[in-house]
Write a structure and sequence with these properties.
By secondary structure, the protein is α/β, with parallel strands linked by helices. Helix content is 17%, strand content 29%. The longest helix is centred in the first third of the chain and has 26 residues. The site of (2S,3S,4S,5R)-3,4,5-trihydroxy-6-oxo-oxane-2-carboxylic acid has 9 residues, from loops.
Length: 631
Protein backbone atom coordinates (compact mmCIF):
# COMPACT_ATOMS: atom_id res chain seq x y z
CA UNK A 1 0.00 0.00 0.00
CA UNK A 2 1.26 3.43 -0.89
CA UNK A 3 2.67 5.23 2.07
CA UNK A 4 2.62 2.18 4.32
CA UNK A 5 6.35 2.31 4.86
CA UNK A 6 6.19 5.86 6.12
CA UNK A 7 3.25 5.14 8.34
CA UNK A 8 4.93 2.18 9.94
CA UNK A 9 7.89 4.26 10.95
CA UNK A 10 5.60 7.14 11.89
CA UNK A 11 3.60 4.96 14.24
CA UNK A 12 6.85 3.62 15.58
CA UNK A 13 8.15 7.13 16.01
CA UNK A 14 5.24 8.24 18.08
CA UNK A 15 4.56 5.19 20.08
CA UNK A 16 8.13 4.37 20.89
CA UNK A 17 10.50 7.22 20.12
CA UNK A 18 8.18 10.13 20.85
CA UNK A 19 7.05 8.78 24.16
CA UNK A 20 10.59 8.11 25.29
CA UNK A 21 13.40 9.91 23.57
CA UNK A 22 11.85 13.36 23.53
CA UNK A 23 10.46 13.10 26.98
CA UNK A 24 13.83 12.22 28.39
CA UNK A 25 15.34 15.07 26.44
CA UNK A 26 12.71 17.52 27.61
CA UNK A 27 12.87 16.41 31.19
CA UNK A 28 16.55 17.05 31.20
CA UNK A 29 15.90 20.55 29.86
CA UNK A 30 13.17 21.56 32.24
CA UNK A 31 13.55 23.91 35.13
CA UNK A 32 11.83 21.46 37.47
CA UNK A 33 14.07 20.06 40.21
CA UNK A 34 15.26 16.51 39.71
CA UNK A 35 13.61 15.23 42.85
CA UNK A 36 10.16 16.18 41.63
CA UNK A 37 10.63 15.13 38.02
CA UNK A 38 8.17 12.55 36.88
CA UNK A 39 8.97 9.76 34.49
CA UNK A 40 5.83 10.24 32.51
CA UNK A 41 5.70 11.02 28.83
CA UNK A 42 3.44 13.44 27.06
CA UNK A 43 1.69 12.47 23.86
CA UNK A 44 -0.73 14.05 21.39
CA UNK A 45 -4.21 12.53 21.28
CA UNK A 46 -5.67 12.78 17.83
CA UNK A 47 -9.11 14.34 17.25
CA UNK A 48 -9.30 15.50 20.85
CA UNK A 49 -11.68 18.29 19.86
CA UNK A 50 -14.28 15.66 18.92
CA UNK A 51 -13.95 13.72 22.15
CA UNK A 52 -16.12 14.24 25.19
CA UNK A 53 -14.00 16.38 27.45
CA UNK A 54 -14.31 18.27 30.70
CA UNK A 55 -13.24 21.81 30.01
CA UNK A 56 -10.81 23.40 32.43
CA UNK A 57 -11.03 26.75 30.69
CA UNK A 58 -11.95 29.69 32.85
CA UNK A 59 -10.32 31.64 35.65
CA UNK A 60 -7.03 30.26 36.99
CA UNK A 61 -5.19 31.79 39.92
CA UNK A 62 -1.66 32.84 39.18
CA UNK A 63 1.57 33.66 40.93
CA UNK A 64 4.14 35.65 39.05
CA UNK A 65 7.58 34.22 39.73
CA UNK A 66 10.31 36.24 37.99
CA UNK A 67 12.97 35.06 40.50
CA UNK A 68 11.94 31.39 40.27
CA UNK A 69 11.03 31.42 43.96
CA UNK A 70 8.90 28.35 43.45
CA UNK A 71 11.92 26.42 42.26
CA UNK A 72 14.66 27.21 44.76
CA UNK A 73 15.05 28.51 48.31
CA UNK A 74 16.73 31.79 49.29
CA UNK A 75 20.15 30.18 49.29
CA UNK A 76 19.60 28.98 45.76
CA UNK A 77 19.14 25.35 46.70
CA UNK A 78 16.48 23.47 44.84
CA UNK A 79 13.30 23.67 46.86
CA UNK A 80 11.16 20.63 46.60
CA UNK A 81 8.14 22.41 48.03
CA UNK A 82 7.54 24.72 45.08
CA UNK A 83 4.32 26.44 44.12
CA UNK A 84 2.58 23.24 43.28
CA UNK A 85 0.84 22.18 46.48
CA UNK A 86 -2.49 23.06 48.00
CA UNK A 87 -1.76 25.72 50.61
CA UNK A 88 -4.90 27.34 51.81
CA UNK A 89 -4.37 30.10 54.38
CA UNK A 90 -4.51 28.63 57.87
CA UNK A 91 -7.62 29.62 59.78
CA UNK A 92 -7.14 32.69 61.94
CA UNK A 93 -3.65 33.40 60.62
CA UNK A 94 -2.23 35.47 57.90
CA UNK A 95 0.26 32.88 56.76
CA UNK A 96 -0.03 30.07 54.31
CA UNK A 97 3.25 28.34 55.02
CA UNK A 98 3.11 24.80 56.27
CA UNK A 99 6.78 24.74 57.10
CA UNK A 100 7.44 28.43 57.46
CA UNK A 101 9.78 28.49 54.48
CA UNK A 102 7.57 29.48 51.66
CA UNK A 103 4.56 31.75 51.92
CA UNK A 104 2.02 31.77 49.18
CA UNK A 105 -1.63 31.22 48.55
CA UNK A 106 -3.14 30.52 45.19
CA UNK A 107 -6.59 31.04 46.66
CA UNK A 108 -5.72 34.64 47.53
CA UNK A 109 -3.83 35.32 44.30
CA UNK A 110 -5.42 37.07 41.31
CA UNK A 111 -6.75 35.21 38.31
CA UNK A 112 -6.16 35.08 34.57
CA UNK A 113 -8.52 33.79 31.92
CA UNK A 114 -7.56 30.52 30.27
CA UNK A 115 -7.19 30.22 27.37
CA UNK A 116 -5.39 33.50 27.02
CA UNK A 117 -1.94 34.99 26.91
CA UNK A 118 -1.10 36.83 30.11
CA UNK A 119 0.31 39.88 28.32
CA UNK A 120 -2.97 41.34 27.10
CA UNK A 121 -4.98 40.55 30.21
CA UNK A 122 -3.19 42.81 32.68
CA UNK A 123 -1.28 45.95 31.90
CA UNK A 124 1.48 45.01 34.34
CA UNK A 125 2.05 41.77 32.42
CA UNK A 126 2.28 43.29 28.95
CA UNK A 127 6.04 42.89 28.80
CA UNK A 128 6.47 40.10 31.30
CA UNK A 129 8.64 37.22 30.13
CA UNK A 130 9.44 34.52 32.64
CA UNK A 131 7.87 31.97 34.94
CA UNK A 132 4.23 32.14 35.99
CA UNK A 133 2.37 29.50 38.02
CA UNK A 134 -1.27 28.85 37.14
CA UNK A 135 -3.59 27.02 39.54
CA UNK A 136 -7.17 25.90 39.68
CA UNK A 137 -9.28 23.40 41.60
CA UNK A 138 -11.63 21.12 39.77
CA UNK A 139 -14.20 18.60 40.85
CA UNK A 140 -13.83 15.19 39.32
CA UNK A 141 -15.38 11.78 39.64
CA UNK A 142 -13.18 9.15 37.96
CA UNK A 143 -15.19 6.48 36.14
CA UNK A 144 -14.11 2.88 36.58
CA UNK A 145 -12.70 1.36 33.40
CA UNK A 146 -11.50 4.69 32.08
CA UNK A 147 -8.30 6.68 31.76
CA UNK A 148 -7.94 10.42 31.94
CA UNK A 149 -5.54 12.72 30.11
CA UNK A 150 -4.81 16.33 30.88
CA UNK A 151 -4.96 18.16 27.56
CA UNK A 152 -3.12 21.42 26.95
CA UNK A 153 -3.86 23.00 23.57
CA UNK A 154 -0.70 25.14 23.82
CA UNK A 155 1.46 26.62 26.56
CA UNK A 156 4.15 29.12 25.56
CA UNK A 157 6.99 28.17 25.90
CA UNK A 158 7.80 25.51 28.50
CA UNK A 159 5.26 23.98 30.84
CA UNK A 160 5.25 21.61 33.80
CA UNK A 161 2.04 20.03 35.06
CA UNK A 162 1.40 19.11 38.71
CA UNK A 163 -1.77 17.54 40.08
CA UNK A 164 -2.25 17.42 43.83
CA UNK A 165 1.40 18.28 44.30
CA UNK A 166 2.64 15.49 42.04
CA UNK A 167 4.71 16.30 39.04
CA UNK A 168 3.03 14.78 35.97
CA UNK A 169 4.88 15.90 32.85
CA UNK A 170 6.77 18.63 31.06
CA UNK A 171 6.55 20.06 27.59
CA UNK A 172 8.64 22.38 25.48
CA UNK A 173 7.27 24.27 22.48
CA UNK A 174 4.72 27.06 22.57
CA UNK A 175 2.39 26.19 19.69
CA UNK A 176 1.63 22.49 19.78
CA UNK A 177 -0.68 20.45 22.02
CA UNK A 178 0.22 17.82 24.59
CA UNK A 179 -1.70 15.27 26.60
CA UNK A 180 -0.48 13.75 29.89
CA UNK A 181 -2.11 10.87 31.67
CA UNK A 182 -3.45 11.69 35.14
CA UNK A 183 -5.54 8.55 35.76
CA UNK A 184 -3.62 7.45 38.84
CA UNK A 185 -3.56 10.86 40.54
CA UNK A 186 -7.15 12.02 40.12
CA UNK A 187 -9.55 11.27 42.96
CA UNK A 188 -13.21 11.86 43.77
CA UNK A 189 -13.95 15.43 44.75
CA UNK A 190 -11.65 18.41 44.65
CA UNK A 191 -8.40 18.11 42.68
CA UNK A 192 -5.69 20.75 42.61
CA UNK A 193 -3.93 21.45 39.30
CA UNK A 194 -0.88 23.62 38.77
CA UNK A 195 0.77 24.49 35.49
CA UNK A 196 4.10 26.30 35.65
CA UNK A 197 4.57 28.13 32.35
CA UNK A 198 7.80 29.87 31.40
CA UNK A 199 8.06 31.99 28.25
CA UNK A 200 11.67 33.05 28.68
CA UNK A 201 13.16 33.25 25.20
CA UNK A 202 16.02 30.81 24.80
CA UNK A 203 18.98 30.91 22.45
CA UNK A 204 18.54 27.17 21.87
CA UNK A 205 14.76 27.36 21.68
CA UNK A 206 12.51 27.17 18.64
CA UNK A 207 12.05 29.99 17.88
CA UNK A 208 15.28 31.51 19.22
CA UNK A 209 15.79 34.89 20.93
CA UNK A 210 14.68 37.20 18.13
CA UNK A 211 11.44 37.12 16.19
CA UNK A 212 9.30 39.72 14.46
CA UNK A 213 6.26 38.79 16.55
CA UNK A 214 5.20 39.09 20.14
CA UNK A 215 6.18 36.44 22.63
CA UNK A 216 2.71 36.04 24.13
CA UNK A 217 3.14 33.86 27.22
CA UNK A 218 0.87 31.49 29.06
CA UNK A 219 -1.86 28.94 28.50
CA UNK A 220 -2.91 30.34 25.19
CA UNK A 221 -5.25 27.54 24.07
CA UNK A 222 -7.96 25.30 25.55
CA UNK A 223 -7.29 23.11 28.59
CA UNK A 224 -9.40 20.04 29.28
CA UNK A 225 -9.58 16.57 30.78
CA UNK A 226 -10.08 13.83 28.24
CA UNK A 227 -11.65 10.61 29.46
CA UNK A 228 -11.06 7.50 27.36
CA UNK A 229 -11.61 3.77 27.86
CA UNK A 230 -8.61 1.77 29.10
CA UNK A 231 -7.97 0.60 25.55
CA UNK A 232 -8.37 3.58 23.25
CA UNK A 233 -7.58 5.11 19.88
CA UNK A 234 -4.76 7.62 20.25
CA UNK A 235 -3.84 8.12 16.62
CA UNK A 236 -4.94 7.52 13.06
CA UNK A 237 -4.21 8.69 9.57
CA UNK A 238 -6.93 8.41 6.93
CA UNK A 239 -6.32 9.89 3.52
CA UNK A 240 -6.96 9.39 -0.17
CA UNK A 241 -4.35 7.37 -2.04
CA UNK A 242 -2.20 9.35 -4.43
CA UNK A 243 -1.82 6.22 -6.52
CA UNK A 244 -5.43 5.61 -7.56
CA UNK A 245 -7.28 8.63 -6.12
CA UNK A 246 -10.07 6.38 -4.82
CA UNK A 247 -8.71 4.20 -2.03
CA UNK A 248 -8.89 5.51 1.53
CA UNK A 249 -5.72 4.29 3.17
CA UNK A 250 -3.70 4.84 6.30
CA UNK A 251 -3.67 3.31 9.76
CA UNK A 252 -5.33 3.34 13.15
CA UNK A 253 -3.35 2.95 16.35
CA UNK A 254 -4.85 1.73 19.62
CA UNK A 255 -3.13 2.04 22.99
CA UNK A 256 -2.93 -1.20 24.98
CA UNK A 257 -4.84 -3.17 22.36
CA UNK A 258 -4.55 -6.91 22.37
CA UNK A 259 -3.13 -8.25 19.15
CA UNK A 260 -6.02 -9.29 16.91
CA UNK A 261 -8.62 -6.99 18.41
CA UNK A 262 -11.02 -5.45 15.96
CA UNK A 263 -11.12 -1.90 14.65
CA UNK A 264 -13.87 -0.54 12.47
CA UNK A 265 -13.59 2.47 10.21
CA UNK A 266 -16.85 3.50 8.62
CA UNK A 267 -18.37 6.31 6.58
CA UNK A 268 -22.12 5.94 7.16
CA UNK A 269 -23.06 8.45 4.43
CA UNK A 270 -21.40 6.17 1.86
CA UNK A 271 -22.39 2.91 3.60
CA UNK A 272 -18.69 2.09 3.63
CA UNK A 273 -17.10 -0.07 6.33
CA UNK A 274 -13.69 -1.50 6.88
CA UNK A 275 -13.04 -4.04 9.63
CA UNK A 276 -9.42 -4.72 10.44
CA UNK A 277 -7.42 -6.37 13.20
CA UNK A 278 -4.61 -4.71 15.12
CA UNK A 279 -1.14 -6.18 15.15
CA UNK A 280 1.09 -6.74 18.16
CA UNK A 281 1.98 -3.03 18.16
CA UNK A 282 -1.65 -1.94 18.38
CA UNK A 283 -1.65 -0.82 14.80
CA UNK A 284 -3.87 -1.74 11.86
CA UNK A 285 -3.37 -0.71 8.26
CA UNK A 286 -6.48 0.66 6.54
CA UNK A 287 -7.34 0.35 2.87
CA UNK A 288 -10.81 0.44 1.38
CA UNK A 289 -12.59 1.91 -1.61
CA UNK A 290 -15.88 3.62 -0.76
CA UNK A 291 -18.25 3.93 -3.71
CA UNK A 292 -19.37 7.43 -4.65
CA UNK A 293 -16.72 9.35 -2.70
CA UNK A 294 -16.66 13.07 -3.53
CA UNK A 295 -13.29 14.72 -3.24
CA UNK A 296 -12.70 17.78 -1.06
CA UNK A 297 -11.60 21.00 -2.74
CA UNK A 298 -11.99 24.78 -2.39
CA UNK A 299 -15.50 25.49 -3.65
CA UNK A 300 -16.54 21.96 -2.70
CA UNK A 301 -15.32 21.36 0.86
CA UNK A 302 -17.08 18.04 1.26
CA UNK A 303 -16.46 16.54 4.71
CA UNK A 304 -17.59 13.06 5.69
CA UNK A 305 -18.38 11.90 9.19
CA UNK A 306 -15.90 9.10 9.71
CA UNK A 307 -16.34 6.74 12.65
CA UNK A 308 -13.30 4.98 14.05
CA UNK A 309 -14.07 2.47 16.78
CA UNK A 310 -12.62 -0.33 18.81
CA UNK A 311 -14.39 -1.96 21.75
CA UNK A 312 -15.99 0.80 23.81
CA UNK A 313 -13.95 3.57 22.18
CA UNK A 314 -15.56 5.42 19.30
CA UNK A 315 -14.35 8.57 17.65
CA UNK A 316 -16.21 10.57 15.07
CA UNK A 317 -14.14 12.84 12.90
CA UNK A 318 -15.10 15.03 9.96
CA UNK A 319 -12.67 14.35 7.18
CA UNK A 320 -12.27 15.57 3.63
CA UNK A 321 -10.52 13.38 1.09
CA UNK A 322 -8.27 14.84 -1.58
CA UNK A 323 -4.84 14.38 -3.07
CA UNK A 324 -2.08 16.94 -3.37
CA UNK A 325 0.93 16.35 -5.63
CA UNK A 326 3.54 18.08 -7.66
CA UNK A 327 4.11 17.40 -11.33
CA UNK A 328 7.07 19.33 -12.76
CA UNK A 329 6.36 22.89 -11.74
CA UNK A 330 2.63 22.35 -11.24
CA UNK A 331 0.75 21.75 -8.00
CA UNK A 332 -2.05 19.25 -8.55
CA UNK A 333 -5.07 19.13 -6.29
CA UNK A 334 -7.11 16.00 -7.03
CA UNK A 335 -5.02 15.63 -10.16
CA UNK A 336 -5.77 19.13 -11.49
CA UNK A 337 -3.48 22.19 -11.52
CA UNK A 338 -4.33 24.73 -8.86
CA UNK A 339 -3.22 28.33 -8.32
CA UNK A 340 -3.03 29.42 -4.70
CA UNK A 341 -4.54 32.83 -4.03
CA UNK A 342 -3.29 33.25 -0.51
CA UNK A 343 -2.50 35.54 2.37
CA UNK A 344 -0.23 35.30 5.40
CA UNK A 345 -1.71 35.33 8.88
CA UNK A 346 -0.21 35.49 12.33
CA UNK A 347 -2.25 34.01 15.20
CA UNK A 348 -2.95 37.58 16.33
CA UNK A 349 -6.48 38.15 17.55
CA UNK A 350 -8.41 40.78 15.60
CA UNK A 351 -9.62 43.87 17.50
CA UNK A 352 -8.51 42.78 20.96
CA UNK A 353 -4.88 41.76 20.27
CA UNK A 354 -3.32 38.73 21.98
CA UNK A 355 -3.56 35.18 20.68
CA UNK A 356 -6.29 33.74 18.45
CA UNK A 357 -8.19 31.12 20.45
CA UNK A 358 -11.93 31.60 19.98
CA UNK A 359 -14.42 30.67 17.27
CA UNK A 360 -15.13 34.39 16.81
CA UNK A 361 -11.45 35.17 16.12
CA UNK A 362 -11.27 32.38 13.57
CA UNK A 363 -14.46 33.50 11.87
CA UNK A 364 -13.24 37.09 11.53
CA UNK A 365 -9.89 36.07 10.04
CA UNK A 366 -11.35 33.62 7.53
CA UNK A 367 -14.20 35.98 6.60
CA UNK A 368 -11.57 38.57 5.72
CA UNK A 369 -9.46 36.06 3.80
CA UNK A 370 -12.48 34.95 1.78
CA UNK A 371 -13.56 38.53 1.15
CA UNK A 372 -10.09 39.03 -0.27
CA UNK A 373 -10.72 36.15 -2.66
CA UNK A 374 -8.36 33.64 -1.04
CA UNK A 375 -8.42 29.89 -1.49
CA UNK A 376 -5.20 29.55 0.54
CA UNK A 377 -3.60 30.83 3.73
CA UNK A 378 -0.10 30.62 5.12
CA UNK A 379 -0.40 30.20 8.88
CA UNK A 380 2.86 31.92 9.81
CA UNK A 381 5.26 31.19 11.55
CA UNK A 382 4.17 28.42 13.92
CA UNK A 383 1.21 26.04 14.30
CA UNK A 384 -2.01 27.96 14.98
CA UNK A 385 -5.01 26.94 17.12
CA UNK A 386 -6.67 23.76 15.87
CA UNK A 387 -9.84 25.78 15.31
CA UNK A 388 -8.05 27.37 12.35
CA UNK A 389 -7.38 24.16 10.47
CA UNK A 390 -10.83 22.78 11.34
CA UNK A 391 -12.44 25.92 9.96
CA UNK A 392 -10.23 25.83 6.88
CA UNK A 393 -11.50 22.27 6.32
CA UNK A 394 -15.10 23.46 6.57
CA UNK A 395 -14.62 26.50 4.34
CA UNK A 396 -12.46 24.86 1.71
CA UNK A 397 -9.35 26.96 2.27
CA UNK A 398 -5.97 25.35 1.60
CA UNK A 399 -3.33 25.75 4.31
CA UNK A 400 0.45 26.14 4.54
CA UNK A 401 1.34 25.06 8.08
CA UNK A 402 4.71 26.02 9.60
CA UNK A 403 6.98 25.38 12.56
CA UNK A 404 8.94 28.27 14.12
CA UNK A 405 12.31 27.37 12.64
CA UNK A 406 12.76 31.07 12.03
CA UNK A 407 15.86 33.08 11.09
CA UNK A 408 19.02 32.09 12.95
CA UNK A 409 18.15 29.26 15.32
CA UNK A 410 21.01 27.10 16.59
CA UNK A 411 21.39 24.86 13.58
CA UNK A 412 24.61 23.21 14.77
CA UNK A 413 22.99 21.86 17.94
CA UNK A 414 21.59 18.32 17.71
CA UNK A 415 19.27 19.01 20.65
CA UNK A 416 17.70 21.86 18.68
CA UNK A 417 17.08 19.52 15.75
CA UNK A 418 15.32 17.15 18.16
CA UNK A 419 13.12 20.03 19.31
CA UNK A 420 12.29 20.94 15.71
CA UNK A 421 11.36 17.33 14.95
CA UNK A 422 9.25 17.21 18.08
CA UNK A 423 7.30 20.37 17.18
CA UNK A 424 6.87 19.32 13.56
CA UNK A 425 5.86 15.82 14.67
CA UNK A 426 3.24 17.16 17.07
CA UNK A 427 1.89 19.48 14.41
CA UNK A 428 1.67 16.71 11.83
CA UNK A 429 0.04 14.37 14.30
CA UNK A 430 -2.60 16.94 15.26
CA UNK A 431 -3.48 18.00 11.71
CA UNK A 432 -2.70 15.10 9.41
CA UNK A 433 -6.38 14.22 8.97
CA UNK A 434 -7.29 17.71 7.80
CA UNK A 435 -7.75 18.03 4.07
CA UNK A 436 -7.07 21.76 4.12
CA UNK A 437 -3.43 21.30 5.10
CA UNK A 438 -1.43 20.69 1.93
CA UNK A 439 2.03 22.00 2.84
CA UNK A 440 4.29 21.44 5.82
CA UNK A 441 6.73 24.33 6.01
CA UNK A 442 9.92 23.50 7.82
CA UNK A 443 11.51 26.96 8.01
CA UNK A 444 11.35 30.67 7.29
CA UNK A 445 14.22 32.83 5.99
CA UNK A 446 17.11 30.79 7.29
CA UNK A 447 20.69 31.70 6.36
CA UNK A 448 22.22 29.42 3.75
CA UNK A 449 25.08 27.90 5.78
CA UNK A 450 26.26 24.27 5.69
CA UNK A 451 24.99 23.67 9.25
CA UNK A 452 21.59 25.10 8.32
CA UNK A 453 21.36 23.02 5.16
CA UNK A 454 22.27 19.82 7.00
CA UNK A 455 19.73 20.55 9.74
CA UNK A 456 16.91 21.36 7.31
CA UNK A 457 17.74 18.46 5.01
CA UNK A 458 17.14 16.20 8.00
CA UNK A 459 13.98 18.06 8.95
CA UNK A 460 12.63 17.79 5.39
CA UNK A 461 13.33 14.05 5.43
CA UNK A 462 11.56 13.81 8.77
CA UNK A 463 8.49 15.57 7.34
CA UNK A 464 8.45 13.38 4.23
CA UNK A 465 8.75 10.23 6.29
CA UNK A 466 6.15 11.32 8.85
CA UNK A 467 3.65 12.24 6.14
CA UNK A 468 4.01 10.69 2.71
CA UNK A 469 0.88 12.40 1.40
CA UNK A 470 1.69 16.09 1.61
CA UNK A 471 4.19 18.55 0.18
CA UNK A 472 7.15 19.96 2.05
CA UNK A 473 8.18 23.58 1.65
CA UNK A 474 10.13 26.42 3.30
CA UNK A 475 10.22 30.18 2.79
CA UNK A 476 13.69 30.82 1.35
CA UNK A 477 15.72 33.98 1.14
CA UNK A 478 16.51 35.23 -2.34
CA UNK A 479 19.58 37.24 -3.27
CA UNK A 480 20.22 39.82 -5.95
CA UNK A 481 22.64 39.45 -8.84
CA UNK A 482 25.66 41.70 -9.27
CA UNK A 483 26.42 44.66 -11.56
CA UNK A 484 24.01 44.72 -14.47
CA UNK A 485 22.06 41.90 -12.79
CA UNK A 486 21.39 43.91 -9.62
CA UNK A 487 17.63 43.78 -10.20
CA UNK A 488 17.67 40.03 -10.79
CA UNK A 489 16.45 37.94 -7.91
CA UNK A 490 18.26 34.65 -7.73
CA UNK A 491 16.79 31.58 -6.07
CA UNK A 492 19.55 29.00 -5.71
CA UNK A 493 19.45 28.07 -2.03
CA UNK A 494 20.74 24.47 -1.83
CA UNK A 495 17.83 23.60 0.45
CA UNK A 496 15.59 23.88 -2.61
CA UNK A 497 16.69 20.36 -3.61
CA UNK A 498 14.93 18.91 -0.55
CA UNK A 499 11.64 20.74 -1.06
CA UNK A 500 8.58 19.85 -3.14
CA UNK A 501 7.53 23.48 -3.40
CA UNK A 502 9.84 26.51 -3.20
CA UNK A 503 8.66 29.40 -1.05
CA UNK A 504 10.45 32.72 -1.54
CA UNK A 505 10.22 35.99 0.37
CA UNK A 506 11.11 39.34 -1.16
CA UNK A 507 10.34 42.93 -0.26
CA UNK A 508 10.96 44.88 -3.47
CA UNK A 509 9.36 48.31 -3.01
CA UNK A 510 9.82 48.27 0.74
CA UNK A 511 13.23 47.20 2.07
CA UNK A 512 14.79 47.89 -1.33
CA UNK A 513 13.97 50.18 -4.26
CA UNK A 514 10.93 52.41 -4.58
CA UNK A 515 7.58 50.92 -5.58
CA UNK A 516 7.74 52.13 -9.20
CA UNK A 517 11.09 50.35 -9.69
CA UNK A 518 9.54 46.98 -8.92
CA UNK A 519 8.85 46.52 -12.62
CA UNK A 520 12.64 46.26 -13.21
CA UNK A 521 12.86 43.07 -11.19
CA UNK A 522 13.53 39.84 -13.06
CA UNK A 523 13.93 36.31 -11.74
CA UNK A 524 16.52 33.57 -12.03
CA UNK A 525 15.03 30.53 -10.31
CA UNK A 526 17.32 27.51 -10.47
CA UNK A 527 14.67 24.92 -9.69
CA UNK A 528 12.04 23.47 -11.96
CA UNK A 529 9.60 23.25 -9.10
CA UNK A 530 6.43 25.14 -8.19
CA UNK A 531 7.12 28.51 -6.59
CA UNK A 532 4.97 30.28 -4.03
CA UNK A 533 5.81 33.92 -3.37
CA UNK A 534 5.47 33.38 0.34
CA UNK A 535 6.03 37.03 1.33
CA UNK A 536 6.01 40.46 -0.28
CA UNK A 537 4.41 43.74 0.78
CA UNK A 538 5.08 46.88 2.74
CA UNK A 539 3.82 48.91 5.67
CA UNK A 540 1.03 51.46 5.92
CA UNK A 541 -0.60 53.22 8.81
CA UNK A 542 -4.35 52.80 8.41
CA UNK A 543 -5.96 56.14 7.72
CA UNK A 544 -2.73 57.84 6.64
CA UNK A 545 -3.21 59.16 3.10
CA UNK A 546 -0.90 60.99 0.72
CA UNK A 547 0.93 60.59 -2.58
CA UNK A 548 2.05 57.08 -3.52
CA UNK A 549 5.63 58.18 -3.09
CA UNK A 550 5.08 58.84 0.63
CA UNK A 551 6.14 55.98 2.85
CA UNK A 552 3.61 54.65 5.38
CA UNK A 553 0.62 55.97 3.44
CA UNK A 554 -2.03 53.53 2.29
CA UNK A 555 -1.30 54.74 -1.26
CA UNK A 556 2.38 53.75 -0.98
CA UNK A 557 1.45 50.26 0.18
CA UNK A 558 -1.16 49.89 -2.57
CA UNK A 559 1.46 50.91 -5.17
CA UNK A 560 3.75 48.14 -3.93
CA UNK A 561 0.94 45.62 -4.38
CA UNK A 562 -0.02 46.90 -7.82
CA UNK A 563 3.56 46.75 -9.09
CA UNK A 564 4.37 43.46 -7.40
CA UNK A 565 1.35 41.77 -8.97
CA UNK A 566 2.47 42.84 -12.44
CA UNK A 567 6.09 41.84 -11.76
CA UNK A 568 5.30 38.44 -10.26
CA UNK A 569 3.69 37.44 -13.51
CA UNK A 570 7.21 37.20 -14.95
CA UNK A 571 7.76 34.00 -12.98
CA UNK A 572 6.74 31.05 -15.16
CA UNK A 573 6.54 28.56 -12.30
CA UNK A 574 4.57 30.85 -9.96
CA UNK A 575 1.83 28.72 -8.39
CA UNK A 576 0.71 30.91 -5.55
CA UNK A 577 1.12 34.08 -3.53
CA UNK A 578 0.82 34.82 0.17
CA UNK A 579 1.59 38.52 0.64
CA UNK A 580 2.67 39.75 4.06
CA UNK A 581 0.15 40.03 5.82
CA UNK A 582 -3.61 40.03 6.49
CA UNK A 583 -3.59 42.13 9.66
CA UNK A 584 -1.19 44.37 11.59
CA UNK A 585 0.36 42.47 14.48
CA UNK A 586 2.15 43.28 17.68
CA UNK A 587 5.93 43.11 17.44
CA UNK A 588 8.45 44.52 19.92
CA UNK A 589 10.97 45.23 17.16
CA UNK A 590 8.64 47.74 15.45
CA UNK A 591 9.37 50.89 17.40
CA UNK A 592 8.66 53.88 15.13
CA UNK A 593 6.55 56.29 17.23
CA UNK A 594 3.27 57.47 15.79
CA UNK A 595 3.38 54.87 13.02
CA UNK A 596 4.33 51.46 14.31
CA UNK A 597 4.00 51.91 18.08
CA UNK A 598 4.91 48.29 18.66
CA UNK A 599 3.04 46.87 15.66
CA UNK A 600 4.24 45.58 12.32
CA UNK A 601 2.11 47.66 9.95
CA UNK A 602 2.32 45.50 6.85
CA UNK A 603 -1.26 44.34 7.38
CA UNK A 604 -3.87 44.83 4.67
CA UNK A 605 -6.16 45.43 7.63
CA UNK A 606 -5.29 47.33 10.81
CA UNK A 607 -5.38 45.57 14.16
CA UNK A 608 -8.59 47.52 14.77
CA UNK A 609 -10.17 45.98 11.69
CA UNK A 610 -9.85 48.85 9.22
CA UNK A 611 -9.16 47.76 5.65
CA UNK A 612 -6.37 49.62 3.88
CA UNK A 613 -6.33 50.46 0.15
CA UNK A 614 -4.00 47.57 -0.66
CA UNK A 615 -6.64 45.12 0.55
CA UNK A 616 -8.77 46.15 -2.41
CA UNK A 617 -5.82 46.11 -4.82
CA UNK A 618 -5.13 42.49 -3.96
CA UNK A 619 -8.81 41.62 -3.88
CA UNK A 620 -9.22 42.88 -7.44
CA UNK A 621 -6.22 40.87 -8.63
CA UNK A 622 -7.49 37.69 -6.96
CA UNK A 623 -11.06 38.11 -8.19
CA UNK A 624 -9.86 38.78 -11.75
CA UNK A 625 -7.35 35.90 -11.66
CA UNK A 626 -4.63 38.37 -12.56
CA UNK A 627 -1.79 36.26 -11.15
CA UNK A 628 -0.05 33.18 -12.50
CA UNK A 629 -0.15 34.39 -16.08
CA UNK A 630 3.35 33.51 -17.24
CA UNK A 631 3.00 29.78 -17.98
C1 LIG B 1 10.00 38.65 6.88
C2 LIG B 1 9.64 37.69 7.93
C3 LIG B 1 8.42 38.13 8.70
C4 LIG B 1 8.53 39.62 8.99
C5 LIG B 1 8.53 40.35 7.68
C6 LIG B 1 8.68 41.87 7.82
O1 LIG B 1 10.70 38.37 5.97
O2 LIG B 1 9.47 36.39 7.45
O3 LIG B 1 8.30 37.39 9.86
O4 LIG B 1 7.51 40.05 9.82
O5 LIG B 1 9.58 39.92 6.91
O6 LIG B 1 7.70 42.53 8.09
O7 LIG B 1 9.79 42.35 7.64
Amino acid sequence: MHGDQGQTSWAYYFNKTFMNKFTVLLLSLMVVPAAVRAQQASTVLVDVDHRQTTSLNGEWHYILDPYLAGLSNFQGAINQHGFFEDREPEAGTNTTAKDGLLEYSFARSPTLKVPGDWNTQREALLNYEGLLWYQRNFEFMPKPGSRVFFHVGAANYKASLFVDGKHICDHEGGFTPFDCEVTSVLHDGKNFAVLAVDDTRLADGIPTLKTDWYNYGGLTRDISLVTVPTTFIDDYDLHLSRTDHKTIEGYVHVIDAQSGSKIQVSIPELSANSDVLVDANGRAAISFVPAGLETWAPGHPKLYKVEVSTGPDKLIDEIGFRTIEVSGSKILLNGKPVFLHGINMHAEAPYRSGRVNTDADVKTLFDWAQELGCNFVRLAHYPHDERMTREADRRGILVWSEVPVYWGIHFADAAVLAKAEQQLGENIRRDRNKASVILWSIANETPSTPARTEFLTKLAAFAHQADTTRLVTAALLVHNGEGAQADTKIVDDPLGKELDVIGTNEYAGWYEMSPEKISNVTWDIRYDKPVIMSEFGGGAKAGLHGPETQRWTEEFQAAIYRNQIAMLNKIPQLRGTTPWILMDFRSPVRVLPGVQDGFNRKGLISNEGKKKLAFFTLQKAYKENALGKAE
